[in-house]
Amino acid sequence: MGAEDDDEPPSKRVKVSSGQLVDISDGTFVRDPASCSLGDSMARPLTLQGEDEVVGTKGIVKKVEFVRIITEALDSLGYKKTRALLEEESGIPLHTSVINLFMQQILDGKWDESLNTLRKIGLVDEKIVKLASFVILEQKFFELLHKEKVTDALKTLRGEISPLCINNDRVHQLSFFIISPFQQVLPGVSGQGIVRIKSRTKLLEELQRLLPPTVMVPEKRLVHLVEQALDLQLDACRFHNSVVGEMSLLTDHHCGIDHIPSLTVQILHEHKKEVWFLEFSHNGKYLASSSADFSVIVWEVKLDGSVCMKHKFLGHKTSVSYISWSPDDHQLLTCGEEDTVIRWDVEFGKCIHIYEKKNVGFISCGWAPDGKRIFCGVTDKSITMWDLEGKELECWKGHKTIRISDLGITSDGKHVVSVCKENMIVLFGWESKVERVIQEDQAITSFVLSMDSKYVLVSLSNQEIHLWNIEGTVKLLAKYKGHKRSRFVVRSCFGGLHQAFIASGSEDSQVYIWHRGSGELVGTLAGHSGTVNCVSWNPRNPHMLASASDDSTIRIWGYNRVNTKQHDTDNGVNCCNGRS
């Protein structure tokens, strides 16, 4: 039963009868396994001349291991002849002759012989031996079924697989294939009613991951080490804000401060009073801002990076304190300070609906991910859910929110995030009714969810910003310090490539930027002449940042590539009054 009929192409088989390197059809060189004793070669670790020799200046890279992973890299890239030449010249084989024999037996489907060779490799951990045996025998089982040798497959299951006494659930599954006439066993990818057996090459890759790396060098190990080195360089780079494709293996990676938005490239003057809030759309094509002048302006981001006014919305009776983009960016919710919530059409600049509730006002708003419902924070400390036509669907009372105009809805739509007490944020599962909390020692002034809804950035009254992980167990990850806040609400945001930075407004008229991972303050942007109330980073352009200030302006920060000449925003701009 060890040497079954072989369906693999002849090019994968090799027959050798001497101790020399033999060239097989694809250019691979294999040493004759008969030229050494199995027991002698793997009962103890392979001993090579210069085994303790190291390379490099730090004295930690073993030459033998280094050469072996280079050899494996050449092999994985298809440079078989070069691999063989390196083995011959260095005297350091990628694998021992026993491992080469084992691999060839797997490719040839010589299951019994491969099991015998596995025992002679000299593995100390018996569990690994059993797991490897199970994988080999499972392949043998499926190939027998594929050839309709059901009796032999049953013998393999009962006499070889079951006695291993591991993975009993899988053994039961295998027995099902014996008794079920509806299952087909075919090569390829599994589907309904069909079980696809893996190729022997895939089987070998699975065994390679299972066996210790000293026995079989992990596949593409050199590439993995290089990728790790690049990742470490990226982590150490405090200004990295570019795509990975721009990295090179030929030089160490380093970015300068010019990789983060640090220059004022445009100043927007259209608001008449303090600008309280602003936010880029999800697609990065628009910027919405709101002001104490009761207005909301939608700005369009042009292809050249310049920003110009598209619509001006007039409809609120109070200062507009909060904005929320619909998931598809076609609509916008705006919330007046303890006033109504208005839904606007962004393309045509029209008021679609006004949401009101008798005897109370709204302080915050947000969209469900499906874009079919909205959530509102109410002055009576409740949170309400509405359909788009203005029908109230749910109302959750009992200190679900306080008069802080921030509201978050997680990307799965299952949790509403709000400030429920002065120093506490609640993550409310509105379907499950399960609540989790973020407890701070200081008063919370604002918060924002990350794009993936795994993190919450909390601004505090003590001039600190805290980063919390809310995926699973709530956990404090980092603190950011340096900005100024004593009287006003100043908002922070995630931003940059992969949201690797934290930005915040400040009462000293500057924008502060930290590296998210290290907490290091990497930049302060000066230019405003009043408190910076809010910042927003373009989610599609890591080099564009916007800031809103009490000086009634919005500054666009980036590279010095955009013509900073002020655009004439009076021509072709629609002005809509939501209450007309």
From TrEMBL:
<keyword id="KW-0963">Cytoplasm</keyword>
<keyword id="KW-0677">Repeat</keyword>
<keyword id="KW-0853">WD repeat</keyword>
<dbReference type="InterPro" id="IPR006595">
    <property type="entry name" value="CTLH_C"/>
</dbReference>
<dbReference type="InterPro" id="IPR001680">
    <property type="entry name" value="WD40_rpt"/>
</dbReference>
<protein>
    <recommendedName>
        <fullName>CTLH domain-containing protein</fullName>
    </recommendedName>
</protein>
<feature type="repeat" description="WD">
    <location>
        <begin position="525"/>
        <end position="557"/>
    </location>
</feature>
<dbReference type="InterPro" id="IPR036322">
    <property type="entry name" value="WD40_repeat_dom_sf"/>
</dbReference>
<dbReference type="Pfam" id="PF23627">
    <property type="entry name" value="LisH_WDR26"/>
</dbReference>
<feature type="repeat" description="WD">
    <location>
        <begin position="367"/>
        <end position="389"/>
    </location>
</feature>
<feature type="domain" description="CTLH">
    <location>
        <begin position="95"/>
        <end position="152"/>
    </location>
</feature>
<dbReference type="InterPro" id="IPR015943">
    <property type="entry name" value="WD40/YVTN_repeat-like_dom_sf"/>
</dbReference>
<dbReference type="InterPro" id="IPR006594">
    <property type="entry name" value="LisH"/>
</dbReference>
<dbReference type="GO" id="GO:0005737">
    <property type="term" value="C:cytoplasm"/>
</dbReference>
<comment type="subunit">
    <text>Interacts with RANBPM.</text>
</comment>
<dbReference type="Pfam" id="PF00400">
    <property type="entry name" value="WD40"/>
</dbReference>
<feature type="repeat" description="WD">
    <location>
        <begin position="313"/>
        <end position="354"/>
    </location>
</feature>
<dbReference type="InterPro" id="IPR051350">
    <property type="entry name" value="WD_repeat-ST_regulator"/>
</dbReference>
<feature type="repeat" description="WD">
    <location>
        <begin position="268"/>
        <end position="302"/>
    </location>
</feature>
<dbReference type="InterPro" id="IPR019775">
    <property type="entry name" value="WD40_repeat_CS"/>
</dbReference>
